[in-house]
Amino acid sequence: MSEQPEVLLDARDVEVTYPIKGFGKKPFKALKGVSLDIRPGECVGLVGESGSGKTTLGRAILGLAPVTGGTIRYRGKEIQGLSRRQRRPLSAEIQVVFQDPYGSLNPSMTIEQILTEPLSVAGVPGAEARARVGTLLDRVGLPGDSAHRLPREFSGGQRQRIAIARALALRPSLIVCDEPVSALDLSTQARVLELLIEIQEQTGVAYLFVSHDLAVVRHISHRVAVMYRGEIVESGDGDQVTARPEHPYTQRLFMAAPLPDPDRQAARRAERLQLAAQA
């Protein structure tokens, strides 16, 4: 019997609760005992509509949301509740790619400055940091002369490639990808997804891939977890969950995916409305 791969990140019964202003207002529980694990070199897709809690879980893993219950372990060590200073060593291990490729890049810095900044903070000597820039740009498919240009000189897809290069700079083991292609057109989405798959094959980095789009998650994920109102309602093998969903909510997400055939699209829309009425 073969051994199971080690667990890189293990979230168990995670709760995130936010206070609500106003007398007598009950706190809002964004996560209600969520459990999820990620293994080295694996992509786990986390899918759900806006307000489902998927981004909150990603932020909790990154230390950006207050964990009020449960545990998050990285390589066996609890990381929830660590101070900013205590989390600093984790920056080399856990990185993030945000949704907005332009808003996440400093518009006044050159691409070289953007890519060398995390390296400098980590203590990498300037000459070595600058030498790594060319390798990073090559890895994400951008020309070497990109280093001396500003973010505004690039398209949305190219800016997201720069954001990916920055996330790769410290050679992390896990990248939280928070809706990394939702702001891009379909053809650019496909290219960025293929890039992420290629990088994973080359480096062995693991992804938590957060998205509202079941079709996007299907393309990149080994396993998929579906979130609804702060809870995971279905999880399992990526092909199974995204092509043959069992939970009514996942089925509704599946029905929401567009089809090129208008007749099939109309039939799917009717099925989705029927499922919604039964919920």
Q: Could you explain how this protein is built, in words?
A:
With 279 residues, this protein is α/β, with parallel strands linked by helices. It has a domain at 247-279. Helix content is 38%, strand content 22%. It contains ten helices and ten strands. The strands form two sheets. The chain has a six-stranded mixed β-sheet, sandwiched between helices. Strands 2-1-4-5 form a four-stranded antiparallel β-sheet, with helices on one face. The chain is globular.
Task: Write the topology of this structure.
Blueprint: E1 9-18, E2 28-38, E3 43-47, H1 54-61, E4 69-74, E5 77-78, H2 84-87, E6 94-97, H3 111-121, H4 126-139, H5 156-168, E7 174-178, H6 186-203, E8 206-211, H7 214-220, E9 223-228, E10 231-237, H8 238-243, H9 248-256, H10 262-278
Parallel strand pairs: 3-8, 3-9, 6-7, 7-8
Antiparallel strand pairs: 1-2, 1-4, 4-5, 9-10
Helix pairs in contact: 3-4, 5-6, 9-10
Instruction: Summarize the main sheet.
Output: 6 strands, mixed
Major sheet: arrangement of strands: 6-7-8-3-9-10
Q: Please report the distance between the alpha carbons of the first and last residues.
A: 42 Å
Described by its quaternary structure, the protein is single chain
Unreliable parts: none
Query: What's the order of the H and E elements?
Result: EEEHEEHEHHHEHEHEEHHH
Total beta-strand segments: 10
The backbone outline, from C-alpha atoms, is: globular
Strand content is: 15-25%
Calculate Rg over CA atoms.
20 Å
- The assigned structural class equals alpha/beta
Q: Please, what is the average pLDDT?
A: 88
* Helical fraction: 25-40%
- Please tally the helical runs, counting DSSP H or I stretches of 4 or more residues: 10
